[in-house]
Design brief:
Elements: E1 4-7, H1 13-20, E2 26-29, H2 35-41, E3 47-50, H3 57-62, E4 68-71, H4 81-87, E5 90-92, H5 99-114, H6 117-125, E6 144-148, H7 152-163, E7 167-171, H8 177-182, E8 186-187, H9 191-195, E9 200-203, H10 217-222, E10 227-231, H11 240-248, E11 252-257, E12 277-279, H12 288-306
Parallel strand pairs: 1-2, 1-3, 3-4, 4-5, 6-7, 6-9, 7-8, 9-10, 10-11, 11-12
Length: about 325
Amino acid sequence: MAFKVVLGRRLPEAGMAVFAARPELDLVVLDNPPPAEWHAAIAEAHGTLCWLEKMDRPALAAAKQLRVVSRIGVGYDTVDVPACSERGVAVMVANGSNDLSVAEHAMMLLLAVARRAVDIHNHVAGGGWWPPGGLRMVDLAGKRALVVGYGRIGTRVAQYLKAFRMDVAVLDPGFSPHRIAADGFRPARDLHAALGEADVVTLHCPLSPATHHLMNAAAFAAMKPGAILVNTARGPVVQQEALVQALRSGHLMGAGLDVLEVEPATPGNPLLTLPNVVISPHSAASTEEGMNRMARISAQNILDVLDGRADPSMMVNPEILQAPAR
């Protein structure tokens, strides 16, 4: 049987090579399509590979033959997983593809804020030298860090922070305190109590109803004065208005952000004008190596499902493998 696969946009060559090895595929490559074009393109698709395209109920209603939704990367907040499961559609992510890249990026953002790399560079590039107000940089060694979310990325970041001789606490209800302690970190049980002890807070939790605006006004008020926030998770985990207030007031030393509540950043976003903020365009996973890993795994995930050998470790909804065929 010839399968039709629709890509929301072209993959890096490592991913396209996976599809090229299967010339019998009917492969359609779009370019960041609007919803109407996306729905029309997937009407006869057996598999889709999504970037920012939504696989919600309207999209699923348009895709009558769909068997698999593959996401580039490991996030899946643009996919209605319950609706896919109802249809028996596998939702696949590229687990293990980007944790190294994102973890390194989180450390870059942390160091950039702690050493005020961007605003000092801008001052020097503008003809200055020593900033009139002083440098106000801080060491990481000896400080306390809180890692929120202990998946593949959070685990790496915790290890990197420990290598910088930081005292690392981990908060993740999905992992037992014994496991966290066995890995050499302090288990944290209460978010606000842990925030009050941390000099650095770095977010690596998925976006869910439980984590939406996890970092709100109350959370920022609980944070230690002079602390640094890093977010390479999802923008809506942080309530932007509350973050802006905490930064403007000086309660926080600064923030390193790879994600925002609204992406791309709007021209009037106040975070863009604050000197104690470093922002990247949701690019933490986008190293050459990381993009190739994500592309290769995401493409292979589609073929594996269509060939009847889905890898449960890559599935968001592996329970559908036990359900009767539909």
